[in-house]
Design a protein that fits this description.
280 residues; 2 domains; 11-stranded antiparallel beta sheet; two-stranded antiparallel ribbon; 4 helices; 15 strands; binds calcium ion
Length: 280
């Protein structure tokens, strides 16, 4: 290869990588929760709030029997392309009612799947569970129990927030919450959502958050990610290299059509065909 050809190739490669890095700038999406629910440790342990306007975390007062509430929340990551690198994750929840003080509410990965049925009640007392609801003793009411009542969560918190008066609260971004979402983008079957666990000792520590069913102030997950570099052989940009891309090359054969000229050498020829076939 002559020196000028080498220099030419070097600059071509540099220009190409510049184009690709411009195409892979970070993207931010705001996701609404796909499902959310509350586990209630009342004496029946078969009350639920699948379709309610709120999710709860913490311990209620004496009037509620001092029972516990644990929130569950899950998001759907189909809008994030496979191969993306997740760089930042923030969960935002609106706390709309509480009886007292500041309490830590931690976000922990759920280790098992759970459901959201149609049970509905105003307030945190709950309603009789409906089929598919998560309850204190069932992942899916009426016949798929948790191994241990109260849910199955990771030991370590992915993020924690100190929740006090009415308003928006944010969990993350932390290395753990980013790792959770990265895992779920890479392996959607591993996405079992998070538990939302408050103070389970102090009476009246329970916090009420707006659920996805609330009319406003719904849960939000703000995810920043870098999409994978585009494949130049995917000429029509539909995410797959197949006969459509091949037809575009063949249809422009022996021309200088810039769309089909994948390697930008001014010709649509066997080199472009080879690039498509190699990426098939
Ligand atoms: Ca719900
Ligand atoms: Ca294509
Ligand atoms: Ca070409």
């Amino acid at each position: 290869m002559s020196r000028s050809a080498w220099v030419c190739q070097f600059f071509f490669a540099t220009a190409l990588s510049l184009v690709f890095s411009l195409a892979t700038l970070a993207t931010t999406v705001t996701l609404g929760s796909a499902r959310d629910a509350t586990l209630i440790s009342d004496s029946s342990s078969q009350l639920a709030l699948g379709a309610a306007y709120n999710i709860y975390a913490g311990r209620v007062g004496d009037q509620g029997g001092g029972t516990l509430r644990r929130g569950l929340i899950q998001f759907n990551f189909q809008g994030i392309p496979p191969g993306s690198i997740v760089t930042s994750v923030q969960l935002k929840l609106y706390m709309s009612q509480a009886q007292s003080g500041a309490f830590a509410v931690s976000l922990k990965k759920s280790l098992l799947s759970w459901g959201e049925g149609t049970s509905f009640a105003f307030g945190g007392g709950g309603a009789p569970a409906k089929p598919g609801d998560a309850t204190w003793i069932n992942r899916f009411y009426p016949d798929v129990p948790w191994p241990t009542p109260g849910g199955e969560f990771s030991t370590a918190a992915s993020a924690s927030a100190n929740v006090n008066g009415v308003g928006w609260y944010t969990w993350g971004s932390t290395a753990r919450i980013v790792a959770d979402v990265q895992e779920w983008v890479d392996s959607p079957a591993m996405n079992l959502g998070w538990g939302l666990l408050g103070n389970e000792v102090v009476l009246q520590s329970a916090k009420r958050f707006e659920s996805r069913e609330a009319g406003s102030n719904n849960p939000q997950l703000i995810v920043m990610f870098t999409p994978p570099p585009a494949n130049p052989a995917d000429i029509n940009g539909d995410g797959v290299v197949n006969g459509i891309d091949l037809a575009i090359v063949l249809g422009a054969w022996d021309t200088s059509n810039p769309t089909a000229d994948i390697n930008n050498d001014g010709f649509v020829d066997g080199i472009d065909l080879a690039i498509v076939l190699a990426a098939w």
